[in-house]
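Ticket #4471: structure export looks truncated?
Reporter: QA, pipeline team
Priority: medium

Steps to reproduce: submit the single chain below to the structure queue and open the exported record.
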Amino acid sequence: MPPEQRREQLIDAALNVILEQGYGGVSIEAIARKAGVTRPVVYDHFPNLATLLHALIEREERYALAQLEQVVPEDPGQRDPAELLSTGVRRFLEAVASRPATWRIILLPLDGTPAIVREHVETNRARTLERIERLARWAIGRPGMPGQIDVELIARAIRSLGEEAGRMVLTDPQGYSPERYERFARAVMSLVWRT
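Actual output as written to the record:
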């Protein structure tokens, strides 16, 4: 197996061990066993467990941030705010459903989650909140939106509701589909947005 492909396999194995056994069950031995290789193969690619876990965190963070950038655009242009929010909800939840292992680490943290993982998650939650605030400020400035809405609170509410929706999609995908949340967002926006 080419080295880069082997690294990805080992990172995938580490992620699976974490999801199955929690962080307390993660070891070079457990990762090697999950990947179907020997310990020296793991050490050929990662000098220690900390380096492997750091590579895992960075990879999953890249995936999550790339997905979020598609959902919360930096420049919404002339798009309709109600449409942007409702389709954004669906697209975010589809992203969660497409990479459940990544989003489980973020939205459903396990007992014993290392500080470095919590720090990465909180840093990126803050960045996401900033993007949502910019988007909310843009939307409130558009015709038809009530201007007296508190931008910071609406951004926090959107982030909190999005995170909760993501948890529901992960834990009960049949009952809480992205489409159901999109319909809900459209209904809420119709109460707020004066067309």
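Status: closed, not a bug. The export was complete when the record was re-opened. Leaving a note from the reviewer for reference: Residues 1-47 form a domain with the Arc Repressor Mutant, subunit A fold (CATH 1.10.10.60).
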